[in-house]
Each structure stands twice: as structure tokens, then as C-alpha cells.
Amino acid sequence: xxxxxxxxxxxxxxxxxxxxxxxxxxxxxxxxxxxxxxxxxxxxxxxxxxxxxxxxxxxxxxxxxxxxxxxxxxxxxxxxxxxxxxxxxxxxxxxxxxxxxxxxxxxxxxxxxxxxxxxxxxxxxxxxxxxxxxxxxxxxxxxxxxxxxxxxxxxxxxxxxxxxxxxxxxxxxxxxxxxxxxxxxxxxxxxxxxxxxxxxxxxxxxxxxxxxxxxxxxxxxxxxxxxxxxxxxxxxxxxxxxxxxxxxxxxxxxxxxxxxxxxxxxxxxxxxxxxxxxxxxxxxx
Length: 285
What we know:
Pfam families: CopD (PF05425)
Number of strands: 0
Membrane topology: Multi-pass membrane protein
Order of helices and strands: HHHHHHHHHH
Strand content: under 5%
Function: Involved in copper resistance.
Number of domains: 1
Protein name: Copper resistance protein D
Distance between the termini: 33 Å
Largest sheet: none
Organism: Pseudomonas fluorescens
CATH architecture: Up-down Bundle
Shape: globular
CATH class: Mainly Alpha
């Protein structure tokens, strides 16, 4: 059950993060001018992701219910699910999360473009209280959740932005790539700074240390893997930044680099999904 929960968390986080970042970066990189081919493709991808998000969100709820009740049979009982939704903090947050996901699916089917970005942003924000973000009470807990919201916004913008960049590179003949890449990398510096600062705050609050110990086991090891993956993404981003001149002439290597950077980001989200199920070893006193 634990393995299924990690896989479900991973799938759901990736879906929501990609949707948020893609819809944030689309106007930033290309402006408000319509790009029919790319916009149709992005909408089609987002619709698929929203359905996957709704399905994985429901499975996540059933897995948590089964874990709390101690059996799979109980997870399929409406009364048990209703109890989890109404009487637990996770359930109360998740009820709103699933409702937002359902509304997003409808907004993507109907011609309601004005609702799409707000719903995606709220969907991402309601992921923050799930996991370690709910460990603390009172003002400390609220500040930790706020910090986690900022962290997720930075991760989502970077990961989803890379998805949009991949789509742009597939239609490279229709765009001037150098200014687009400069805009992306310029914002990327701020996203990396926000990601690192909020990540360090999370570690400090949850473990009581600047870095958890022992270094090569449990929570600390997975966190180290996540950091190495993010550093790999940053190294590729810096390399591409240094090679912006005449980027159209090396389109093949640019596509490969962006795809590898995106895959490293997906792997980092996988590490985060596992971290959320591990004890962060909070120190006493």
C-alpha cells in the first residue's frame, strides 16, 4: 500500500505542477497572440492531465482511507470515505481539492478560459497542506503551509515552463527562439532562488537542523537525491543560457538538453513524493 501511495502522489503532483507551470509560462513566453497549433496542443494536454489528476486524486483518497481503516474493504465503503472527508484534516482539504479538480475538468471542456488559471492555481495551493505541511499547529503550521505553497509555485512554474518550451521547440520554425529562451532563463533564476530558500526553510523547520542526519539513509538520503537532481537541472539551464547565440543552428542538442532537464525535474518530483511518506526526524527540544 505504501508503494501505491508513493506512485499515486508522484502522478498527482506531476500532473498538477505541469498544468500550473504550462499555463503560467504560455503567455510569458509567447505573449497574448494566438498560436493555433501550439494552443490546441497545450489545451489537449491539459485536458488529459486534468482527467488524470481527478482519477489519481480519487485513488489517493481511497489509499489514505484504506490506510486509516486498516483494510481495502473499508476504503470502498461510502460511510468510511465520508468519515475521512469530514473528520480528518487531510479529508477536509482533499474534498476541496477534488472539487477544484472537477471544476477544472469542466472549465477545460466548456469555453470558460477565464476560470482555468485560477482553478489550476488553487488546485496547486491545496496540495501544500498534504504531507509534512500539516505537521505543525497554530501560526507555525500556517507559515509552514504558506512556505510550501511558494515552494510548489516555484517547482510547478519551472517544470511546466519546460513543458511549454518543449512544445515551442517542436514548432521552432514559427518562433524566434533566442528572446523566448532569454525570457525563460531570466525568470528561471528567480524560480531557483525561491525553490532553494523555501526548501531550506522546510528542512530547518521539519528536522530542526540545516540538514537532516544521518546523511545517507532515510529522509536525508532521498532529500540529497532530490537536491542533486535539481542541481543537474540548474547546470543544464546555465549551459543553455551560455549558448543562446545562434541557438537555431543547434536545435537538436537544444531539444535534447531541455528534455533531459524536464526529465530530471520529473525525477525530483518522484523524490518529493517519497519524502512525503517518510518521517523527517524532527528533533526533540
